[in-house]
## 1
Amino acid sequence: MYYKIINILSILIFLFAFSFVGGQEKEESTESLKLKLSQSKSEKQKVDLMNEIASVLRYSQIGKGLEYAEKALESADKISYKEGSAKSLYNIGALYYYKGDYKLALEYYNHSKKIYNQLKNKKAASNIESAIGSVYFSLGQYGKALESYNSALRQYEADHNLVGIAQVKDNIGTL
């Protein structure tokens, strides 16, 4: 009994320490990105950095992440940087998804996917299609979720994207 308690306490301490270090690394990463952003002279690079910051903040500070993603979208549109706009729209969609606003998540994901399709970036478009499936899953619209997942799966298979295939098959299995 004594050893079980020691083992459980050891595991809990390890998990606590691991989660603290992970959060600290994200914070350091965000600060590092912010420093690069303040030093950047290229508008395109600023858009990419703001998008990267928004992506890192997705799980911890949704409001701040939205600020960076929206600012990145505004800047990308100003300089006609389509790839940056598409990434910003994707980030905004993901942030709304994690916020639980699935209607807005779908709106931004679909807009992003449209741009990626125009740019013929099949990998990004199929990633968004999978994300759209997750939104439908969260809404309880399982038929639409399966359609989106299968669409993403076909593209992943055509591209021999093994990671994408594994992830979307996991989503289908969960569905």
Note: Confidence is low (pLDDT under 50) at residues 2-25.
## 2
Amino acid sequence: MRRARDSDYRSRAVYKLREIDQRDHLFRSGQAVVDLGAAPGSWCQYAAARIGNSGNVLALDILDMEPVNNVTFIRGDFTEEAILEACLGALAARPVDLVISDMAPNLSGIRDADQARSLQLAELALDFACRVLKPGGDLLVKVFQGAGTDRYREQLSQHFHKVMIRKPKASRDASREIYMLARGYGV
């Protein structure tokens, strides 16, 4: 966290995103990006800087978040119809280039339960991405490895041209978190 504070980022999670972006070139100038589970906002900060003023970032979270320059924030659960409609309205019918999700459940310490709830969030992110992504768009989503991870990867493969697993060095070694990068929606 100190490293993030020293660099003006809101959390160290930004280093995971930055590492994946440096490897896979997720962001381009002018993109439309949606950040699911955005609070506290470090991924939004990074995405907004990478896509520039000609792009737009829409951030959603059930928690409140301090404003981020060039980011539209909606507080609420995107699985609720009213919040989803607000999101779609904020996108103004603009197809989305990239959906990013660093969502994680509140951890109980019960490994199997936490992993199952992580996959449920990832499935919700996939459902959302399928509603808003333009053809060829991408999805980056965090999951915890375990039962059901292979099945989720197969689900992604049904919608995307290519699915890759990323384990950033910025992730703690003991962490079971991985990121699935799904590229080429509907292609």
Note: Confidence is low (pLDDT under 50) at residues 1-6.
